[in-house]
Specification:
Elements (H helix, E strand, L loop, with lengths): L2 H33 L9 E5 L4 H13 L2 E6 L2 H9 L6 E4 L5 H15 L6 E4 L15 H29 L2 E5 L12 H20 L5 E7 L9 H13 L3 H7 L3 H16 L5 H12 L6 E4 L1 H11 L3 H11 L8
Parallel strand pairs: 1-2, 1-4, 2-3, 4-5, 5-6, 6-7
Helix pairs in contact: 2-10, 4-5, 5-6, 7-9
GO molecular function: all-trans-retinol dehydrogenase (NAD+) activity
Organism: Neogobius melanostomus (round goby)
InterPro entries: NAD(P)-bd_dom_sf (IPR036291), Sc_DH/Rdtase_CS (IPR020904), SDR_fam (IPR002347)
Length: 332
């Protein structure tokens, strides 16, 4: 019986029903698989970086309440003390500067003693910085480097150093990128570093999939954290402007800095979400789900604006950003 005969027998509407039923069943199976959690959480160790505040701090508390053995890397003693007081005695902290290979190595040796033969179930590379951020021409090479050293080099160094412990547990690597790792909307090192995180994570996932290790990428939209605070952002913009030569300043015009700051205020106030759990819920799922996702988009602006925009032709993105950003009042 050929396809035409089957089509004639069932009729056009029957095929719609079959397709609809298949789609519903596929969604139900996906939702069921997505809801499955790994067992024996109390025996699994998860290392989180950047835990003094923000996403990392909140995630540690969530994982601690869930039963994980949380190992928190904090930059400062105060951050470590505050986190310990807010969590159970199971949560342990270690001082960690991801820009220092010596600090990373010491943290790995400490972790190795903590986890023993179990290995490390997960590492969440959350530590990061955003500033300085502004027009690319305003940046010096050291302005790029200070961000790349944390967001790119630090993340790669943490991952490669801790990888043997993760392979032992056949665990998870969770790297925090950004929607700005898909759409380059700002000058400075932030977008560059987050594009690098996306690329490194994709390469790593394909290289180590044979070892049963999952690599997940978190792509948050804009959230109200220290990274998006307007005060430091505006101070950095003034610093960058002040270091420009008179010729470069003249090419932008005297009012450009004020216009640029107004646009930044408008964007941050309009799109920054205060609900940080939208991000930490994604991180939690990545370390606790039986079938973690490869990518997590966190925040409505990520889902409805930035991710769709990343699939658009470049000229569409260019035009959109051109309409938002101020125009220099005088060209060279």
């Amino acid at each position: 019986m050929d396809a035409q005969v089957v089509y004639d027998l069932l009729g056009e509407n029957a095929w719609y029903y079959i397709l609809g039923t298949f789609s519903v069943l596929w969604v139900l199976v996906w939702l069921y698989k997505d809801s499955l959690e790994v067992e024996n959480l109390g025996e699994k160790y998860v290392f989180v970086t950047g835990c003094d505040s923000g996403f990392g701090n909140l995630l540690c508390k969530k994982l601690d309440r869930k039963g994980f053995r949380v190992l928190a890397g904090c930059l400062t003693e105060k951050g470590a003390d505050d986190l310990r007081r807010a969590a159970s005695p199971k949560l342990k902290t270690v001082l960690l500067d991801v820009t220092s290979l010596d600090s990373i190595q010491k943290a790995m040796e400490w972790t190795k003693k903590e986890v023993g033969e179990k290995g490390l179930w997960g590492i969440v590379n959350n530590a990061g910085r955003a500033l300085p951020m502004g027009p690319s021409e305003w940046m010096r090479i050291e302005d790029y480097q200070c961000t790349l050293k944390v967001n790119m080099e630090g993340l790669i160094a943490m991952t490669t150093t801790f990888l043997p412990l993760i392979k032992k547990a056949r665990g998870r690597i969770v790297n925090v990128a950004s929607v700005l790792g898909r759409v380059a909307a700002n000058g400075g090192g932030y977008c560059i570093s987050k594009f690098a995180v996306e690329s490194f994570s994709d390469c790593l996932r394909r290289d180590i999939n044979y070892f049963g290790v999952n690599v997940c990428i978190i792509e948050p939209g804009f959230f109200k954290t220290a990274v998006t605070s307007l005060g430091p952002l505006e101070r950095e913009l003034h610093r960058l402007w002040d270091q420009l030569s008179p010729e470069v300043k003249a090419s932008y015009g005297d009012k450009y800095l004020d216009k640029y700051i107004k646009v930044q205020r408008l964007i941050m106030n309009a799109v920054c979400d205060t609900d940080l759990t939208k991000v930490t819920n994604c991180m939690e799922h990545a370390v606790s789900a039986v079938y973690p996702r490869t990518r997590y988009s966190a925040g409505w602006d990520a889902k409805l604006l930035w991710i769709p925009l990343s699939y658009m032709p470049s000229f569409v993105v260019d035009l959109g950003l051109k309409l938002v950003l101020p125009r220099p009042s005088k060209s060279v």
